[in-house]
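A protein record pairs a chain with a discrete description of its three-dimensional fold. The shape at a given residue is found from the number at the same position. Here is what such a record looks like in full:
>
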Amino acid sequence: MKRLIGKRVITMTKLGRCRYCSEAIIANYPEDATEEEKTALATSLCSCSWAKREVGRKREIERAKERVQQLFGTDAKKVGFEPIAKEEIHNLLNGLIELISNDIIKGGAIQIDGITKAKISVSAKGKINIERVQTTKYKLEA
């Protein structure tokens, strides 16, 4: 919003409000930002404990999804595994991460094929663990 004061045009900075504490956060929001977008940005900038928790949770979700990519995606070769190419499996694992992060479930395990198992759980410190177990068994008889 621009306002004419004397002979000068002043650009007004928009306000957003934290969704938790309702503190007004002054920032340069995009010109076409909706109220929800302003609220989301204001919450991410707020210093209240609830907003900090939300920011930390979002960061944890992103890190966990990166770990899924490292263990099951194209980066899996770096740790000695063959990548799992099915996008549906990646989506399922990422969905489990969301459910765990939102305290809906405590963990889950998926048997992907005869030798590959994915396990997602919460550590004692509250961190999300992503585990890939690959078992190979050889039996020879003479």
Summary: The first helix runs from residue 35 to 45. Strands lie at 2-5, 8-11, 14-17, 24-27, 107-111, 116-122, 128-134. The longest strand covers residues 116-122.
